[in-house]
From TrEMBL:
The gene is Cmbl_0. One of its GO terms (molecular function) is hydrolase activity. Residues 30-245 form the Dienelactone hydrolase domain. This is Carboxymethylenebutenolidase homolog. Belongs to the dienelactone hydrolase family. It comes from Myiagra hebetior.
Amino acid sequence: MANESRPCPCDIGDRFDYGGRGQEVQVEHIKAYVCKPPAGSDKAVIVIHDIFGWQLPNTRYIADMLTTNRYIAICPDFFVGQEAWKPSNDWASFDDWLKTRDAGKIDKEVDVVLKYLKDQCGVKKIGVIGFCWGGAAVQHLMLKNPHLKTGVSLYGVIRRFADKHSLLHPTFFIFGEKDDIIPLEQVKLLEQKLKQNCKVDYEVKIYPGQTHGFVHRKREDINPQDKPYIEEGRKDMINWLNKYL
């Protein structure tokens, strides 16, 4: 039984009734969702999913949105076949579940995806975005991977890399003001540490009134007051990628 007294805090908003415009492919040992713009492109964005995995319709919707902005988008299964988290799971078991899915140990899979994009898709410039678990993974990659040009971390769990701030590439951090997972004091501390240690461009932006997952997890028509911030977050993400890719 799920722990109803403490439901999964990431389970916010509706899943989109959305099938996707791309296709699933096998990239060496990883499955991935890939969508390409009709005119082709030499720029790509790796989309790193949240705890609900690579098949979440909401995430594929964002990947397809990147394609309409002339990027090849690829969302690999960074859990490599392990089950994604389900809202019905017992939240008390989450920490044990997470131990076998480390956002800081995806380098092997990222290397495979980079090779695929360059060899099979003719890509020359690659960025990365990620949500929640994937947002933490973006920060990890921005700290160490020389082959990526830029990243956007959307409500990435700060405590995962709380002591590491020397980013290699321009990075944009998106947070919601009312995020129960990431308190504002953590965001402020991140900003302070980046100011002290970071030598590349970065931005930390807090969106008023927004909860965890607002950019990709909510349907715009649920709460009309949230719609401008959802749209703003998506536009900011695209603008950042356009600037650095």
